Amino acid sequence: MRTGVDIVEIKRIEKILEKRRESFYKKVFTYSEIEYIENKINNPKTVAGLFATKESVSKLLGVGIGNLNWKDIEILHDKNGRPFINISSKIRKYLKEIDLNSIEISISHEKEYAISFSIGFFK
């Protein structure tokens, strides 16, 4: 098993959204993620949670953002609202390199912070 974790201050995301919401969304999120965010009325907690998850997954994979594009890590939600990673071909490549079979994620937020924890399971 491998893990990745990230925590984001929600105020930091609020400031980004005030100044450059559209360019931030376009750079970091896929169309499906933006649609989800907009359905949550552009809630900074939601945005911070998704952002933290992208970071935690990149840490789990051991590559960081740079080797991966923000949009290579897509967070979707099932009918019950449970988040999951849409495994892109680029992520699949990294999973094979480190012999992981799957990734599970958890996202939580409170008044000031959003946190994400990612677990990868070996084959």
TrEMBL record:
Enzyme class: transferase
Main location class: cytoplasm
One annotated GO biological process: fatty acid biosynthetic process
InterPro entries xref list: 4-PPantetheinyl_Trfase_dom, 4-PPantetheinyl_Trfase_dom_sf, ACPS, Ppantetheine-prot_Trfase_dom
Occurrences of domain 4'-phosphopantetheinyl transferase (ranges): 4-116
UniProt entry tagged with the keyword Transferase: yes
GO molecular-function term, one example from the UniProt record: holo-[acyl-carrier-protein] synthase activity
Record-listed E.C. numbers: 2.7.8.7
Protein name (database record): Holo-[acyl-carrier-protein] synthase
Taxonomic placement: Bacteria, Bacillati, Bacillota, Tissierellia, Tissierellales
